[in-house]
Amino acid sequence: MSLFNGKNQNQYIAPAQMLENRYKSSISNLLIVVAFTAVNIFLLVTNSNSYFLFSAYLPYFVADLAMYICGKYPAEYYYGDEIFYDNTYFALMLAFAVVILLVYVLCWFMARKKKVGWLIFGLVFFCLDTVAFVVLNGVYSEVIIDIIFHIWVIVSLAGGIATHKKIKKLAAQSAEPVYYENGTEDAEYLSVQSEGYITEAEELQQVCADSPVLRMADPDVKSRIFLETQAAGHYIVYRRVKKVNELIVDGRVYGEYEALVEMPHNLAAVVGGTTIEAGCGADSKMYINVNGETVAKKLRLV
Questions:
Q1: What is the pTM of this model?
Q2: Residue 294 CB contacts under 8 Å (≥ 6 apart), including other chains
Q3: Does the chain have fewer CB atoms within 10 Å around its N or its C terminus?
Q4: How far is CA 164 from the centre of its chain?
């Protein structure tokens, strides 16, 4: 849940990719907090009398206090008998405010690497920021929007933690081998069952016929998507990453073709009993076939 997030409602997104997008959207709010707080502190020290919402309170409070005790505000802000601290204190307090912002940046950076402990720390840290805001300011009409924003960020970060758990659970379901005994032999395979039940013999026959998974597809790598479609209950992508063409089914790479200069080729896989093919013919026509039927095609010009 991000404050600034749009998406194409007509595009099919695989469950794993959907969770990844949701997680990234949640942790991006940490950067939004840092950006707006940094802008507000800059506006504060330049006496611009402007303030943006979506800001963390504690670093701004530290900068505000530094401005006051060091005599940086206009004369009408003071009684006239104050003793001000020198610029050394002002610089130290601003540095402390920057350190608080860097803590949020560090939480975002580590959470981006799926270190969810840092996201939990960021959530706790922002909860303390919210408590400090309410205790030092109270609750009245002028600060309601600020409080709503703080609650929004807290809910978003908590949602990111929950999404991370779902990602781990989905990964465990996709990667955990299941063993069935058939006579004297064991069949090892990966299985993610959908709704409904099938017999052990039927599932064993289906999985043994399936093509092996080469690896999980990297959703963040720079790539050129030739064709993508949803057919027979599968999300199919035919794309090129650097000099490798990949056949991806439901977020898993089942076939690849590596060549600096591409020649006609066909990538094929059997997934859940469905034969899926993707490639490019001698006539430069790219295609995706499912059980022998063309479900997507395009003429490749370059």
A1: 0.56
A2: 287, 288
A3: C
A4: 10
